[in-house]
Amino acid sequence: MGMIRFRFKLTAVFIIFALFVLAPTVYLIYEVTLDRQTKELRERILGIVKLSSVNLDTNKISQIKPESASESTVLYGQVRNYLRELRNTDSLIDSVYIMVKSDKQDTLLFLVDSGDRRKISASCGEEYNISGIEEMKEAFNGPSVDKKPTADKWGIFLSGYAPLRDSQGKPIAIIGVDVRAESIQMMQVSLAKRFGIILILGIMFSLALGWFIARNLTNPLKILTLGVKEIGRGNLDNKVEIKTKDELQELANAFNKMSADLKSSRLKLEKYYLDTIHSLARIIEAKDPYTKGHSERVAAYAVGVAKYMHLPEKDICLLQEVAILHDIGKIGVNEDILTKSDALTQEEWETVKTHPEVGEDILKFFEFLQPGLSVIRDHHERPDGRGYPRGLVANQISKLALIVAVADSFDAMTSDRSYRKAFSCAEAIVRLKEGRGKQFDPEVVDIFILFLKENHLI
User: Fold this and answer.
1) Strand-pair partners of 98
2) SS3 state at 163
3) What is the biggest distance separating any 2 CA atoms in the chain, rounded to whole angstroms?
4) 231-271 pLDDT per residue, tens
5) Other CB atoms closer than 10 Å to residue 67's CB: what's the count?
């Protein structure tokens, strides 16, 4: 009886330990994980609305009056169709709309609404009370995103806003992007269930361990605690190794599955980010029909050369993404400049030269792309220091940026452009060789030509 009472007491100690240590730890990790995913979602919404605002024609918007009669005008229809195209670039977006100030305090007027995915639209001139929505009040001063979902007659949304400015830089309206809160709620429920299961398994583990193998408790529990802390730090590759052939090992397997599921969720979220950016990158190419498919071809050339150079697999995967996005900064360049058939003026050329830094600024919010931002920024730098935007020299330019520079130039030379016909492959290769050590890295040029020959691309 004494031994049984001891086991019951020891079991109770382990259960209390689980409730006071494991439960708060699991809850803390749940809160950290939920906060991180919500933060990444808000950053994604902010990126979408910022990119959407720079591509709108504010001259057209300023001509639309906030009254119901405007809905029958051609101009209103054009802007509404464009907003619908923006909405349809990403399944996450529920609606896109433009609002202007009214003469009433804390009241805005709908100007153009794309309608949500249920085809419900706000009328032109319809009033919208923004009291209590501080992010929307500040939207005329700069981009913002809701700290928490807001509710109105259309539903519950997490929304982002950005100002629309005229040619003098004066804000004339704001553009808003709504994302339904159901995705956030589903994420919360899923995480709560998953961490609830972990907590229950932890208590069951404590019960079994206290009754049967109390003396072997310390080391396995320490391993689990360290694993929990690693997940709390964001290290989802960490695996817990426990081989006791009992409930404790099952708990470790469940823990590892949870870690793998969290990593998979993060990868899916990163893919959603990339899909959104890729859609916006295609909008850039749509502005200039001569560059259609340019980004994909540059990425294919760059990845092929990187493999020939035996670069690490992680660098090749990163190169695949950033090469496709290397010209995303051109979303801020006027379409007339991109498609101009005559020589650019000095002022126009200076505008074009800003696109690497604009691209870097657009993508800097995406944490998993930050290692490749130098490629976006430096793919027009030259080994001889005559490139832009910073005039770097050879040893200051990353190898990935040097690869993209050669791939970008070759595809540009062998493609028709608004200002000239395409060069032949032979002529393009001659120009690459002439630029060795000056415009292009010699090693990259040699390997690029070898890659083209061995793959029968020339």
Assistant:
1) 112, 175
2) strand
3) 98
4) 656 565 666 666 666 666 666 666 667 676 666 766 676 66
5) 12
Q: What is residue 381's predicted lDDT score, i.e. its pLDDT?
A: 94
Report the run of H or E that residue 96 belongs to, with start and end: strand 95-101
Beta bridge partners of 319: none
Task: State the residue for tokens 């052939």.
Answer: 245
Confidence of residue 148 (pLDDT cuts 50, 70, 90): confident
Round to whole Å and give the CA distance between 446 and 92: 44
Return residue ranges of the chain for CATH 1.10.3210.10.
Answer: 288-454
Banded pLDDT at 441 (limits 50, 70, 90): very high
Q: Which residue has the higher pLDDT, 186 or 63?
A: 63
What does 50-70 look like in DSSP terms, one character per residue? HHHHTTS-HHHHHT--SSGGG
271-315: pLDDT as tens digits: 666 666 666 666 666 666 556 778 889 999 999 999 999 999 999
Q: What tokens appear for 152 in the block?
A: 């109105």
DSSP 292-319: TTHHHHHHHHHHHHHHHTT--HHHHHHH
Start-end of H helices in 154-292: 182-212, 218-232, 247-287
Strand pairing report for 155-165 and 150-152: antiparallel
Helices and strands: H and E segment counts in the chain: 17, 7
Whose structure tokens read 């032979």?
426
pTM: 0.45
Q: State the distance between the two ends of the chain, measured CA to CA, in whole angstroms.
A: 87
In 3D, which of 332, 340, 331 has the Cα closest to residue 290?
340
Quick check: helix, strand or coil at residue 444? Answer: helix
Which of 3.80.30.20, 3.40.50.300, 1.10.150.170, 1.10.3210.10 would CATH assign to domain 288-454?
A: 1.10.3210.10
Give me the amino acid identity at 275: D
- Other CB atoms within 10 Å distance of the CB of residue 149: 18
Q: Which residues pair with 164 in a beta bridge?
A: 173
